[in-house]
Structures
1.
Amino acid sequence: MIALIGGLAGMTGVVIGLLALRSARSAVEECLAMLGRQCVLDGVVDVKAIRDVAVFRYDALAEMTGRLSFSVAMINGLGDGIVLTSINGRTETRTYVRPVRGGRGIQQLSPEEEQAVRAARLGIGPDVVPQRHAR
């Protein structure tokens, strides 16, 4: 009985380790892609100029469909810039702007804003297709 429990615990540990390895590999691939975009083969680049832009469209409110709400990330080569967000409802629209430093929001970003910043940093933009995550 103890051997069976030990075997199950060991197999669980292996599965958790494999999932962590997959996650780490994905993070490394993203970092390499980001670094590759920052490397310049020829010429001089102004790293402070806005160069990466991504638009993430989504349905922010249940009452509005058609992906009318959006977050736009405008980022320079240093990962600094802004995220402009517009939440569109049936009777009103709210607009927010949040600063980004080093690829991270100075204020807490919404998941949609983070998606836009990430897509801009990776060069996926300008129009980002939402990814469906199983919950």
2.
Amino acid sequence: MKRIAFLGCLALACCGKKPAGQAVYGPNCGICHHGGSGMPGETPPLVGRVDFIAQTPEGRHYLANVLLNGLRGRFTTQGYRYNYSMPAYRDRLTDQQIADTLNWLIARGNIKPSPTITPAEVTSARAQQGDPAASYQERQLLEQKQPLFPKSMTFPQS
């Protein structure tokens, strides 16, 4: 009986509360992006990429816009081509939930200390109307300034 009680306590200790961003990510983003590694050629990876993008105010604005407005278009990242369409979460997630989700992904990347996105930055992005095509155009402009993923970096396995 003591062994069963011990195993029960151990199971509960291992199943602690998930970080807020992970809890939002799972049912909203995880269905396509899986644990953050995506599927080459089908769904782009996030872990090891969003942290790099989030280093600049323009990058953080773009990431907020993608979650708020979705993304649709063709692009290449880490040698894989994508013709991607992602839904908008503007009407599904709060600014805090979007910031938490992005920050959870950012913290899992290679950039240390990790950049962060504030709910206020998401609120600012939300004040502007957008759509998946506008997010794609913003991505193209950002990519012209600086690659959204450096060729020298590799994605962590998740």
3.
Amino acid sequence: MRVLRSVRALSDAMDRMHSGMKGDMDMNATDLAALRMLIMREQLGRSVSPREIADHLRISTASTTKLLDRLVDSGHVMRRPHPTDRRGRIVVLTDESRKAFFRTFGTHLRAMRLVATDYADGDLAVISQFLDEVSGALDPTH
């Protein structure tokens, strides 16, 4: 039960952090979730299509279009031609949005990294596996 309480505490802390970030960045939860997705995919060197955003957020393509229009209008993202599919589009972060995200999230990220330094690589591998499996149990499409 202790580990399940810890997972719940982590979930609550993440909710509070994201709530603060929404206010700091002046956007709603779905917009922030889209930016988080774009940041994570960018760090993996992967481009993101509007369809992938819709699938990730589990929203319709019409809602995705409205979301992207808001993020483009606010200067957070740009739509670009797909590098290999002439008919396709990708969504990329603007430099200012990336800076704002890390300005807002950077303190939290540094704090999480500091906690991780107290653990051996093997321990972190087990923790990562556990968290991935919990995520999969809660969201099988994860």
